[in-house]
Amino acid sequence: MRREIRGISIPSAQSPFALRVGYVGEELATVVYWEEVDGPASVMCHLAAVALDFQGRGFGALLLVDALDTITSVAVQAGLHKVHISGVIFRENERSQRMCHAIGADRTGEDFPAGGEEWGYSLPV
């Protein structure tokens, strides 16, 4: 079965938002949604998710690699050398924490209501 990520939109001067979706055949497997907070040098990931039927099979890694490649491409076009990426992960969401650790992200120390913790990563371009 073929795995692919399809871009719905890529950040540009017209829109600071991006949505990328991944499919296995015709089934939706992954979604990642982010926004440029202060131009392409600072990105807030609002959602990164893998459908239950596809968890534990490498789709999260595929999702992150695609998102980081897309963010890097925009940063290169803007002449940047680094991009700060942040997002909130719930304390009990160990899979997301492991996935983020795998790319070098870590907790920043800021806590949010309902058990969320801010995570951050500096992406070298």
How are the SSEs placed, and which strands pair?
Blueprint: E1 3-9, E2 17-24, E3 27-36, E4 42-50, H1 59-77, E5 82-90, H2 94-102, E6 106-112, E7 116-124
Task: Please explain how this structure is put together.
The protein is an alpha+beta fold and 125 residues long. It has one domain (3-124): 3-Layer(aba) Sandwich (Aminopeptidase). It is 22% helix and 47% strand. It contains two helices and seven strands. The chain has helices at residues 59-77, 94-102, and strands at residues 3-9, 17-24, 27-36, 42-50, 82-90, 106-112, 116-124. It has a seven-stranded mixed beta sheet with strand order 1-2-3-4-5-7-6, with helices on one face.
Name some characteristics of this structure.
single chain; 125 residues; Aminopeptidase; 7-stranded mixed β-sheet
CATH homologous superfamily (4th level) name: Gcn5-related N-acetyltransferase (GNAT)
Radius of gyration: 14 Å
| Number of E-state strands | 7
Going by helix content, strand content and strand pairing, the class is alpha+beta
For the largest beta sheet, what order do the strands appear in spatially? 1-2-3-4-5-7-6
N to C succession of SSEs? EEEEHEHEE
Quaternary state of the chains: single chain
Give the CATH class: Alpha Beta
Arithmetic mean of pLDDT: 87
* Overall helicity: 10-25%
Q: Write down the domain tally.
A: 1
> How much beta, percentage-wise?
over 45%
Q: How many DSSP H or I helices?
A: 2
Explain briefly what this protein structure is.
This protein is α+β, with helices and mostly antiparallel strands and 125 residues long. The chain has helices at residues 59-77, 94-102; strands at residues 3-9, 17-24, 27-36, 42-50, 82-90, 106-112, 116-124.
